């Protein structure tokens, strides 16, 4: 049974967004380092790399177990009283938030007594606030003796929204952990879904966030796309290619976007056995059947439909500890955001110390970095002719938009377009 997804009005969404902007910085200052879902500066790949660090050969992952936890109707059953006690907002804002989570639809649905609207802008943040601490559930207070001294050994749990996995050492008691989890959730009006909660060996493998994690008998850790994810991409590509509302060329472009997105998501997996050869062959036959291209042209077109993406298994760089974009460390977050760029743009960014060559400010989350040719000649790719600017700074360059000399020779009617300084 699927939970209802309420869609707020435009004004309600705007108000929820304002509350989110007010509440998020304070909440981020308290969130656990192993909470990753719907948080700025964090992603699924942080979870993937964290699990690798716990199950790799050096960490003796072959002897560990995994507790997969599923919360029953998390967004629908959150206790409003506990939620309102947990948020840090002024009184007027709290009253507005309370009305937002209580609101129903006149004549159709009564006002809700529990839960948060899944279609709301602020709902993921509220769920994170309520579930804060579930990654450790006070079970981290385990003092162990090593080399004659005691140290605090923290339980390794990874939470992405309401999906949680715990990495258990051989000496950990899953029954005690389950008791703590049940107590933790009961105070919030939630409970565990027994049908989907289980303890498995690391060598048996488990699916999480679209990936399959497994430790081989030789102790080597491997992360691959899950069978469900592979099946989903095959279904999606076939739907796109069979969609007769678009031309064949448009379908090929759409297929390329889908494949590129899928491969980018899995670029930190071992993709050696997931080159989608069978899907590639099916698409090749489908294009040939249309009678538009011969086999040589089809081979060239197929490269557009199945763009290659470089992958490097378990090479993602995790967020450091509890760092947040709201902590004021602009240098750290600027370098981390700029890591999304590659090729010559990345090289120039590093040369400029991740600062805009025009205004001198660092590139921050949400800023768009653009490559600028100083002399306006887009055919001149010499290193001393390139610099990276903010998009806004780029638009105000005097030679921005000038056509390269090679273009002018092809079409003499082209004229330079100069923007005011």
Automatic annotation (TrEMBL):
UniProt domain Reverse transcriptase: residue ranges: 1-213
InterPro entries the record matches: DNA/RNA_pol_sf (IPR043502), GrpII_Intron_Splice-Mob/Def (IPR051083), HNH_nuc (IPR003615), Mat_intron_G2 (IPR013597), RT_dom (IPR000477), Znf_C2H2_type (IPR013087)
PANTHER family reported for this sequence: NUCLEAR INTRON MATURASE 1, MITOCHONDRIAL-RELATED (PTHR34047), PROTEIN YKFC (PTHR34047:SF8)
UniProt xrefs under SUPFAM superfamilies: DNA/RNA polymerases (SSF56672)
UniProt-listed Pfam families: GIIM, RVT_1
Taxonomic superkingdom: Bacteria
Listed PROSITE patterns: RT_POL, ZINC_FINGER_C2H2_1
Name of the protein in its database record: RNA-dependent DNA polymerase
């Amino acid at each position: 049974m699927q939970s209802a997804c309420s869609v707020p009005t435009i004004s309600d969404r705007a108000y929820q967004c304002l509350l989110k902007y007010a509440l998020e910085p304070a909440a981020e200052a308290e969130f656990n380092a192993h909470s990753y879902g719907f948080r700025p500066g964090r992603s699924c790949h942080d979870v993937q790399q964290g699990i690798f660090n716990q199950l790799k050969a050096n960490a003796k992952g072959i002897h560990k177990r995994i507790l997969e936890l599923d919360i029953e109707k998390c967004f629908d059953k959150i206790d409003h009283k506990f939620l309102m006690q947990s948020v840090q907002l002024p009184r007027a804002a709290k009253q507005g938030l309370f009305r937002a989570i209580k609101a129903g639809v006149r004549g159709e649905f009564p006002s809700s007594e529990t839960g948060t609207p899944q279609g709301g802008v602020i709902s993921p943040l509220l769920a994170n606030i309520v579930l804060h601490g579930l990654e450790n559930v006070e079970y981290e207070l385990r003092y162990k003796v090593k080399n004659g001294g005691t140290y605090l050994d923290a339980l390794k749990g990874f939470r992405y929204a309401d999906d949680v996995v715990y990495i258990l050492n051989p000496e950990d008691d899953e029954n005690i952990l389950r008791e703590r989890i049940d107590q933790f959730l009961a105070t919030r009006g939630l409970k565990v879904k027994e049908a989907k909660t289980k303890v498995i060996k690391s060598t048996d493998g488990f699916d999480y966030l679209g990936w399959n994690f497994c430790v081989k008998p030789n102790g080597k850790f491997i992360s691959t796309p899950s069978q469900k994810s592979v099946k989903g991409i095959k279904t999606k590509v076939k739907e796109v290619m069979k969609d007769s509302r678009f031309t064949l060329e448009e379908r090929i472009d759409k297929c390329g976007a889908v494949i590129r997105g899928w491969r980018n998501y899995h670029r930190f997996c071992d993709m050696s056995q997931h080159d989608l050869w069978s899907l590639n062959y099916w698409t090749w036959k489908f294009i040939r059947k249309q009678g538009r291209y011969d086999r040589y042209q089809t081979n060239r077109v197929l490269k557009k439909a199945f763009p290659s993406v470089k992958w490097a298994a378990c090479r993602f760089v995790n967020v450091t500890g509890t760092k947040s974009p709201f902590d004021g460390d602009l240098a750290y977050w600027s370098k981390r955001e700029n890591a999304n760029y590659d090729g010559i743009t990345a090289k120039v960014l590093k040369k400029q110390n991740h600062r805009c060559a025009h205004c001198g400010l660092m590139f921050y989350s949400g800023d768009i970095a653009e490559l600028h040719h100083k002399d306006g000649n887009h055919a001149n790719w010499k290193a001393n002719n390139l610099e990276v600017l903010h998009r806004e700074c780029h638009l105000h360059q005097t030679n921005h938009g000038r056509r390269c000399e090679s273009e002018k020779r092809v079409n003499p009617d082209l004229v330079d377009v100069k923007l005011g300084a």
